[in-house]
Amino acid sequence: MTEEAAARAAELRAQIAQHDYRYYVLDDPLIPDAEYDRLMLELRALESAHPELITPDSPTQRVSGTPGGSFGEIVHKVAMLSLDNAFSEEDVQAFDRRVHERLGVTGDLDYVAEPKLDGLAVTVIYRDGLLAQAATRGDGLTGEDVTPNVRTIRAVPQRLRPPAPPLLEARGEIFMPLAGFERMNREARERGEKVFVNPRNAAAGSLRQLDARITASRPLTAFFYGLGALEGAAPPARQSELLEWLRRLGLPTSRDARTVRGVAGCLGYYRELGERRSSLPYQIDGVVYKLDDRADQERLGFVSRAPRWAIAHKFAPDEALTVVRDIEFQVGRTGALTPVARLAPVFVSGVTVSNVTLHNIDEVHRKDVRVGDTVVVRRAGDVIPEVVSVVPDRRREDARPVQLPERCPVCGSRVLRVEGEAVARCTGGFTCSAQRQEALRHFASRRALDIEGLGERMIEQLVERDQVKSPADLYALTLPQLAQLERMGEKSAANLLAAIEKSKQTTLPRLLYGLGIRDVGEATALALARHFGSLERLMSADERTIQQVPDVGPVVAAHIAAFFASEEHLRVIKALRDKGVTWPDLEPAPRSTGSLTGRTFVITGTLSSMTREQAQEALTARGAKVTASVSKKTSYIVAGGEAGSKLARAEELGVPVLDEQQFLELLGSDGG
Ligand code: JCF
Questions:
Q1: What average pLDDT does the segment 342-368 reach?
Q2: Fold match between 85-314 and 600-669?
Q3: What is the pLDDT of residues 205-214, one digit of tens each?
Q4: Can you give the three-state secondary structure of 265-278, one letter per residue?
Q5: For residues 541 and 519, what is the distance between their CA atoms, to the nearest angstrom?
Q6: How many percent of the chain have pLDDT more than 90?
Q7: Which residues fall within 8 angstroms of residue 170, CB to CB, at 6 or more apart?
Q8: CB of residue 173 inside a 6 A radius of ligand 1
Q9: What is the pLDDT of residues 285-328, one digit of tens each?
Q10: Helix H or strand E encompassing 340
Q11: For the ranges 112-121, 489-498, 658-667, which has the lowest average pLDDT?
């Protein structure tokens, strides 16, 4: 048994290493991520059943548990060089001239050109093919021991592909691809945490963590480009061959590295990469040219910390200073207010930037951006331009902190911000032109006023032509108007008109739901309708009274009160009535003696017409109790799609099962 397990573990490790190689080195994965995850899971399970099978190079051992107290030091066997910079074509020409003079040669020389990644330089030592140590550059002579951290990076193989020399030190760059960087920052922003200013800082901050588990959770990757110490193998004669060799050993190198001829080749590469810069999946700050012939490299040697045989040709900086002319709030389709800085136009990494989102009011306050401030603006690669920071000593004395407006800049409705949420929203709904289309789509939807044939496209056209501003305007539409819409024949126009006419006979819960009051879903609409019985009674209730409705908390009550406090909304409701839309009053339900009082429900699986919370609200609004687990006392179990063990348990106990249709009928049968 153990022998079998050992064989399987070895096989899994080999497969995983092969997939890492396909993914990181060849950039040509063979299997989907889910299948890779499955292999890892199987290996983990095997190893936890047979701990004696764990090997140090197992992919499960990338993350070691306990954080150390500080980073140790590693003395580099071969100095880790940095690069001199060239900022212009002339600088590159001068570099090439110096190389020619020192070597005493004429004619074009071959160079290897590659992107210069904006990350953190590391050296990784393999002994007998096994990852043994990893270190940062430090001062070039001594670096920090980041072995546990580098081990967590999947692009860095735990074991080299044979034949590997007894000792090989590979040099490269650890970096964070832009997609991962943006995702990480988005998540940090949502949690209200600090964000990294750029991928470089994010990579450095992620790698230099005393707890390698944090490093493991960060989307880091690596490219290798150089050689440190080497024993037991002849070093390749050319830089281009070195890159090939590293790849064969399983170390990822840049796919964009090219051998080019002479200065002209270098500059051609520079221009080509410059054009592609903003579409690369990672941030680069220039290109590196290296003399291809390694014997020539050796002849040239280095000065202070930089080789004479290589140079970094930098791109124009991707940061610039400008002035914030204004800070405005834009209103999105869901009413979300987004602060936007209007800037004096500034040229950054190839484009003119004059508007930059500040995401939300917390972000504005965190960066403390004010109108009139001088700010650092950055545009890195494909990253959307951003305000990095304010230049504090250029602030005018009278600059005031930005405040969230109390009224929507588009429609003047109240702006509401829920405690603990980053987003502030306009409460205007369809009275706000920014939200109109979305609000009308909701009004017409099946579970609201149910206007068949009034789809997204139709609404878009009606709103664009300014024929419909509020739901009430729908009831003034004429046959010729409808027939003029795109994709609309005489016949379907007539059908749509009939559907609009038919929707006039509606119910209070449908109307309440259709008004699109924030957080008022179907179930809440139903509870409100049953509690108040008429729209008038709800409209004249204050927040405290509204909170007495089962499952309506202070937040929802505030949204409802804000909605009916709007003059615009009152006008629309009156207009709906005037156009003949009717909804009969309901018998107000005496509290807690609903039609389902005394019954206990369990909800399981997914319902297609409402969320579980809504289903729960609908039940409690009728006096029922909703519990999490099935027992003999359960009156009914409501089983949605993919219901699992709870359904099985209910069947075992003989508890009656309601499918979604039956559940809706039960809810509907008492006047809802
Ligand atoms: O991508 C880089 N940041 C990068 C750095 C690429 C290289 O080829 C380098 C480097 C630093 C030193 N080569 C050397 C020698």
A1: 90
A2: no
A3: 999 999 999 9
A4: HHHHHHHHHHHHHH
A5: 18
A6: 67
A7: 123, 124, 126, 224, 226, 227, 228, 246, 249, 251
A8: yes
A9: 899 999 999 999 999 999 888 999 999 999 877 788 899 999 99
A10: strand 336-348
A11: 658-667
**In terms of Cα–Cα distance, which of 213, 207, 313 is closest to 265?**
313
Question: Taking the model in full, what pTM does it have?
Answer: 0.58
Quick one: fold of 429-502?
A: DNA polymerase; domain 1 (1.10.150)
Whether 637 shows a pLDDT value over 90: the answer reads: yes
- Distance CA(87)–CA(374), nearest Å, equals 26
Give the pLDDT confidence score for residue 670 in this predicted structure.
57
Whether pLDDT at 382 is above 60: no
Please indicate whether residue 122, judged by its CB atom, sits closer than 6 Å to ligand 1. no
Asked if residue 117 has its Cβ within 6 Å of ligand 1, the reply is: yes
How far away, in angstroms, is 164 Cα from ligand 1 center? 23
Catalytic-residue membership of 116: yes
What number does CATH give the domain 3-61? Answer: 1.10.287.610
* Residues 407/318, Cβ–Cβ less than 8 Å: no
Would you identify the CATH topology of the domain 85-314?
Answer: D-amino Acid Aminotransferase; Chain A, domain 1 (3.30.470)
Q: Which CATH superfamily is 318-427 part of?
A: Nucleic acid-binding proteins (2.40.50.140)
Distance 137 CA to ligand 1 centre (A): 11
Ligand 1 mean position, distance from CA 179 (Å)? 22
Per-domain residue ranges for the chain?
A: 3-61, 85-314, 318-427, 429-502, 508-578, 600-669
**Cα 526 to Cα 542: distance, rounded to the nearest angstrom:** 18
Rounded to whole angstroms, the Cα distance separating 665 from 672 reads: 10
CATH architecture, domain 600-669: 3-Layer(aba) Sandwich (3.40)
User: Which CATH code is given to the segment(s) 508-578?
Assistant: 1.10.150.20
Catalytic-labelled residue, pool 77, 116, 290, 632: 116
Q: Please, are residues 353 and 385 in contact by the beta-carbon 8 Å criterion?
A: yes
* Distance of CA 169 from the midpoint of ligand 1 (Å): 15
Looking from the CA of residue 117, the nearest atom of ligand 1 is 1
Q: According to the 3-state scheme, what is the secondary structure of 202-231?
A: HHHHHHCCCCHHHHHCCCCEEEEEEEEEEE
Residues 289 and 269: their CA atoms lie apart, in Å, by: 10
